[in-house]
């Protein structure tokens, strides 16, 4: 396990390859931002806008997937107010047992801001069975729901004949997941290759209980379907010099976004601006931490280091205090939903803990063998 020399990115992140000088891809990209001609890039953005307006087949000239959170709220307002487009917003909503009132209120806030919005609610029982199956098979309860999340927007874009899809950050640039890099930094048509989607494979979800016809909302369109519909996915964050968790959160909070007031130790998040629509993401980030040695706090501080809001030394202290933290309340809530005990939960998690990086000291308790910022 090695750390980037500039930030706290680890080489254990799937799909990440450091440069020979020990710099991670995200830091390497960030160092180029000062040399970019942003006016020229905006003209490139205008080409995307023109494409959407020229292919307005339904009254909407673009489509945006939203959760009601910081990124989607800022994107929606930017597209409407600055690009002068008429977007259709699409929200893939968790079932009632998972969605928070905060999440409902933030979606309502988008509607109050004047947007047309479609909410997609996959069948709760199928959702529940797939979450359980994802947890036992991959020790990632969000494996199936992320397929539904990413699939919902292009599926609706094809159905409504809206070929322009605005997406948020390009994780190949912001996080270093190189597999999704397209023709340029704005091209998102390779999203299917991201580690989360696994190429859009759904065969692992099919069983005696769950047939293919139950998985329509979990099925990412094929490459040919995308080509036939002339779909273009464009990373809007590529065109923003000030795209960041902090800036997006501040912008959206000033426009009605309701954020969290939890303690960082409860959610592994010191800003309280992420995963606002449900409470199980902190649990999944905890599992990620035990698999790879980094969690949400690491992602946060890396961005703060690059934007000079935090020193590397300050970031190390923050990671040591909070990375991988999750309230037992959320773990219990998830276990109740998929109908297992917390002991069963930890037995499953134990099978995927990276014991090269951690030492087990008790049920649900692990001690890092690595030193943050130095590695093993």
Indicate the structural class. Answer: alpha/beta
CATH class category name of the largest domain: Alpha Beta
**N to C succession of SSEs:** HHEHEHEHHEHHEHHHHHHHEE
**Which spans have pLDDT < 50 for at least 5 consecutive residues?**
none
Q: Whole-number radius of gyration?
A: 20 Å
Tally of DSSP β-strands = 7
Largest sheet strand order: 3-2-1-4-5
Helical stretch tally: 15
- Average predicted confidence as pLDDT: 92
How large is the share of residues in beta strands? 5-15%
CATH topology of the largest domain: Rossmann fold
Summarize the amount of helix as a percent range: 40-55%
Based on the structure given, which CATH architecture of the largest domain is correct?
3-Layer(aba) Sandwich
State the separation between the terminal residues, measured CA to CA.
6 Å
Please describe the structure with a list of short key phrases separated by commas or semicolons:
376 residues, alpha/beta, 2 domains, 5-stranded parallel sheet, two-stranded antiparallel sheet, 15 helices, globular
Written description of the protein model:
This protein starts with 24 loop residues before the first helix and ends in an 8-residue tail after the last strand. β1, α3 and β2 form a beta-alpha-beta unit. The model has no long low-confidence stretch (mean pLDDT 92). The strands form two sheets. A five-stranded parallel beta sheet has the order 3-2-1-4-5, sandwiched between helices. A two-stranded antiparallel sheet has the order 6-7. With 376 residues, the chain is an alpha/beta fold. The chain is 42% helix and 9% strand. The chain folds into two domains: 204 residues, Rossmann fold, CATH 3.40.50; 108 residues, no CATH class.
């Amino acid at each position: 396990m090695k750390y980037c020399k500039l930030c706290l990115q680890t080489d254990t992140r799937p799909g990440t390859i450091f440069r020979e000088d020990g710099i991670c891809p995200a830091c390497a990209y960030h160092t180029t931002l000062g040399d970019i001609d942003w006016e020229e890039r905006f003209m490139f953005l205008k080409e995307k806008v023109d494409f959407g307006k020229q292919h307005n087949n339904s009254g909407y000239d673009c489509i945006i997937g939203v959760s009601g959170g910081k990124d989607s709220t800022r994107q929606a307002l930017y597209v409407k107010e600055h690009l002068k487009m008429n977007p259709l917003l699409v929200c893939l909503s968790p079932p009632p047992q998972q969605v928070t009132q905060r999440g409902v209120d933030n979606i309502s806030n988008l509607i109050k801001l004047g947007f047309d919005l479609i909410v997609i609610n996959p069948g709760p029982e199928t959702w529940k069975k797939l979450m359980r199956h994802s947890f036992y098979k991959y020790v990632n309860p969000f494996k199936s729901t992320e397929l539904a999340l990413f699939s919902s927007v292009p599926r609706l874009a094809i159905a409504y004949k809206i070929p322009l899809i605005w997406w948020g950050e390009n994780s190949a640039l912001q996080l270093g997941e190189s597999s999704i890099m397209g023709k340029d930094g704005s091209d998102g048509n390779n999203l299917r290759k991201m580690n989360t989607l696994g190429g859009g494979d759904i065969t692992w979800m099919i069983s005696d209980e769950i047939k293919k016809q139950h998985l329509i909302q979990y099925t990412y369109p094929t490459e040919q379907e995308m080509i036939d519909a002339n779909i273009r996915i464009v990373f809007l964050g590529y065109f923003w010099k000030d795209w960041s968790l902090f800036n997006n959160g501040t912008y959206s909070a000033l426009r009605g976004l309701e954020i969290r007031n939890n303690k960082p130790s409860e959610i592994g998040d010191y800003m309280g601006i992420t995963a606002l629509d449900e409470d199980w993401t902190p649990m999944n980030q905890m599992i990620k931490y035990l698999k790879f040695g980094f969690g949400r706090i690491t992602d946060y501080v890396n961005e703060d280091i690059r934007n000079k809001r935090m020193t590397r030394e300050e970031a190390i202290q923050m990671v040591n205090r909070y990375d991988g933290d999750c309230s037992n309340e959320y773990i219990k809530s998830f276990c109740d939903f998929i109908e297992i005990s917390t002991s069963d939960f930890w037995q499953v998690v134990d099978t995927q803990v990276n014991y090269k990086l951690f030492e087990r000291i008790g049920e649900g308790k692990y001690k890092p063998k690595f030193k943050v910022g130095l590695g093993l």
